[in-house]
């Protein structure tokens, strides 16, 4: 059973199921195009994910048959009704980038569950997630060049680090739509599932993730994100050691090894 959280907005429903947060873009009448209320909800969700020790990971999905059509071209970047976001941005100027996982990504894993189209901002936010499930009818694309715009969500940097350069250039310069099967072959997503099953598959991944030691997962995630190809290997390996060795002295490390010895499931406490 999902439990509603008090940080939801009209365009972004935020719930939890045990240690799993579920963030649902909730503007299906506009193909989940970004709105101010949606951005505020996502921003609140990622900050709550970091702050709540009971939450282990999050799933991001969309209501209806479209994950996200990106910026609302009819209303502009804010998607209309920009009052609350303008107030919040006085203290958090990059709130919109935090919402879209461009800045200040949560320290815990985010799993993406896509049904239907994920275009422009819908594919840009994908690049800030860690594990990605798509329905067989999903379609990805970074189409800003077709509208005289620029993909400021980070795609000109992140996409070419996540898939081969020539493929990234094709998506960015041609604005070409990419099928779920192509995205899987390119390594842009992890799994393709039957239509209507993306969220269920993401929940299974989240449950599997929750069986592992949270401090281990968070340290590995930090290393994956920060120690990329732009770092010389020797420097990256030194940074990996700095992250990894402290994990061996945690209570969870002792519990994991003891549970293996005693042939039982471990009971991790995040310490």
UniProtKB/TrEMBL annotation:
InterPro entries under this entry? ClpP/crotonase-like_dom_sf, Enoyl-CoA_hydra/iso, Enoyl-CoA_hydra_C
Per the UniProt record, the source organism is Denitratisoma oestradiolicum
Q: Give this protein's Gene Ontology molecular function annotations.
A: isomerase activity
Q: What name is this protein filed under?
A: Enoyl-CoA hydratase/isomerase family protein
Q: Which UniProt keywords apply?
A: Isomerase
Matching PANTHER family, A to Z?
A: ENOYL-COA HYDRATASE, IP11341P-RELATED
- Pfam families associated with the record: ECH_1
Does Isomerase count among this protein's keywords? yes
Record family assignment: Belongs to the enoyl-CoA hydratase/isomerase family.
Q: Which residues form the signal peptide?
A: none
């Amino acid at each position: 059973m999902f439990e509603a959280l008090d940080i939801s907005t009209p365009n972004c429903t935020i719930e939890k199921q045990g240690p799993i947060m579920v963030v649902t873009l909730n503007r299906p009448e506009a193909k989940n195009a970004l709105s101010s209320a949606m951005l505020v909800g996502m921003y609140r969700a990622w900050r709550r994910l970091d702050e709540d020790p009971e939450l282990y990971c999050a799933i991001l999905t969309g209501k209806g048959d479209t994950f996200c059509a990106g910026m609302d071209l009819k209303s502009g970047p804010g998607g209309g009704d920009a009052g609350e976001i303008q107030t919040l941005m006085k203290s958090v100027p990059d709130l919109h980038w935090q919402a879209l996982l461009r800045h200040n990504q949560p320290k815990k894993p985010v799993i993406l569950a896509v049904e239907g189209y994920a275009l422009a901002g819908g594919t840009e936010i994908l690049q800030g997630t860690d594990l990605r499930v798509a329905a067989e009818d999903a379609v990805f694309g970074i189409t800003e060049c077709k509208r005289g715009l620029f993909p400021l969500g980070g795609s000109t940097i992140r996409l070419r680090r996540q898939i081969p350069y020539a493929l990234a250039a094709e998506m960015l310069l041609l604005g070409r739509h990419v099928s779920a099967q192509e995205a899987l072959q390119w390594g842009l997503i992890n799994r393709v599932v039957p239509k209507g099953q993306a969220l269920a598959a993401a929940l299974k991944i989240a449950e599997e993730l929750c069986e592992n030691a949270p401090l281990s997962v968070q340290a590995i995630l930090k290393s994956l994100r920060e120690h990329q190809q732009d770092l010389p290997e020797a420097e990256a390996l030194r940074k990996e050691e700095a992250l990894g060795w402290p994990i061996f002295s945690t209570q969870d490390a002792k519990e994991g090894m003891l549970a293996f010895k005693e042939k039982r499931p471990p009971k991790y406490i995040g310490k």
